[in-house]
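As a warm-up, study this chain.
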Amino acid sequence: MKQNPDSYLLYEAGKFITYNFRLKFVMRQKVDAKALEMAANTAFKRFPYYAKRISILKNGEIELVDNPLPITVKQYSGKHPRMGTEEVNYHLFSIEYEGNDVYFNIYHGMCGGCGAMFFIKSTLWYYVREAFGVETEIGDIKTADTPFVDGETDYPDLETLTDDEPLGSIKKDSVYIPAADYVKQLVSMPFRDAKYYELELETKDFMKYARSNDGSPNSILSALMFRAICKVTSPKVAKAIRGNIICNYRADVGCPNTYHDLVRMLSVYYPRELESKTTEYLSTVTRSMMYVQMQPEFSSKIMKSIYKSMDDVDNKKGLLNKKLFTLTHSQHVQPPFGTFIVSYVGKDEWYGLEEYIDRIHCITDGHLLLEVNALRDKFYLTFMELNGKHKFYDAFCEAMREENIHFKGLGSHERNLPYTILPKKSKGKV
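Now compare it with the structure written out below.
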């Protein structure tokens, strides 16, 4: 690895490939634009590792170099923000607002949701102070005078990763992939029917249901996604279904406090004959497969493969060759490929900010992808589907109703995810 590790995913950036995400915060009151801009730029100074712009050297290497310009805070345009361009001061972070909504647009190679929360919590803390004159409880929120936490910028040390093989293996048999939906979108860029759907669940009720069915939020939601897909697919077509459940493995590789995006997917293989089983049975199967794969040895293996991929990119000559290589050797997509993804890595603590936040939604790329966020009393689900007929979303809601899981549907919205745009001209020395 010759470069900043956050830069490598940029080789995969294309006109319609985003690898970015948006965190949407619905505030309890209309956003004060002036207060938000001041808060964001005060907070941003605490995180110099995010204040970067893209530079392409003459040898084709992509560098992330310091960017002293302020972070942009703009009225939501309803369009795709173009990260790395003049419209966002060349940053890979930007903020938009509309009514009660605040959107944090973030390049995914820089961090995931865990690392992004460092900056987001700080921004919202300053925002509440500026807009309402209230200093809420600090907790672990990083403000301008908070020193760097030990390991905050660390990346895994290859020498400390274990060479031990994990016990057990991942079932890699082929599964149903909704290929027709992907193909339809690939020929009608930029994702014409790409919407997301918002849902709200009561924490107390949902956790009571989960505990009574030998489950955790991840295992229950994965079981419900399996049921939903069975409802709208033929057993002849979907003979088996795989759920991929996101796992935060920062601690496994020695970086529990880092901002870097270190997550992997746990693979849960569901043969179609499990369709007749109870949710409790499905949840037990899901949890058992998750536990097998939560060994640190699996994390070390993934991390080593990422380092090898970075070295392979380094060995390619010129930007074009590096980009062509990443087309078929993506770090972003780890096999075995799944039918759906459930992304929930645990509840964040929001301290006194909860009085000002109504709900949270994470908006990402993907098809049959369920993002989960939580406040004290609510779970907020964000369901991503490419199919314009929202058949999978409808089936997921039906599966919850059959289990008497009470939820509130909060409507569908256009994703309008950010695009990361590379500079057109090479700069710097060879």
